[in-house]
Amino acid sequence: MGMTEQNDTSTAGRALVGQVIGMGDTLAVGRFRYLFATHRWEWSDEVAAMHGYPPGTVPTTAMLLSHKHPDDRDRVAEVLTSMDHGATFSSHHRIIDTAGRLRDVLVVSEHITDADGTVIGTEGYYIDVSGTAAEYRREAIDAALPTLLEARVVIEQAKGALMVAYAIDADQAFRVLRWRSQETNVKLRTIAERVVGALPTVGGADVGLRTRLDHVLLTAHEDPPADHGTG
């Protein structure tokens, strides 16, 4: 069984996904999870469709690797191997679906823990950042989000952080921020401010940086801890 009952496969969820990141393409974002003990993958219908499979298809590590672009496969294989040692699945790479179509995807995730706090797996999102023409995206963004102009500086800073960490371009970074904003019902400017505010704590390089930024990105909608200082 996939993740249909747990994620974005309801009518409302599909509509939200289309509005947030796909500009009408309901395949643009989907969920996945991986359990370390059983080496079991689960993915939503949206992620299955990104790879060209019908709903209900059960993924495996070998299947996932078979769809990676040849130039990206070894790098992603290293990431997948590290997951069995407790790492999350964080990557920006290309996949080739069953029909031979190339997709540019961003994967962000966090740990799954049991009741005792032990890490037992990882779960997160596949985001298809390929497709829609840049000028169409820009027109839609300008029409839908005019109030964001005053927040340009902090949003540009947050975009820059995502571009460096995930090796994506400016439009793709904006779509990721906008997705988190709409999915969590938190203003995009607030998401951007929290991402930028957390940057001093996520210093590092390569996978370590991406993993820490995954956590920041997926929790940026939460209220920050209260400052109990007296100064």
From TrEMBL:
GO terms for molecular function: RNA binding. It holds the Pfam family PAS_3. InterPro entries: ANTAR, CheY-like_superfamily, PAS-like_dom_sf, PAS_fold_3, WH-like_DNA-bd_sf. Residues 135-196 form the ANTAR domain. This is ANTAR domain-containing protein.
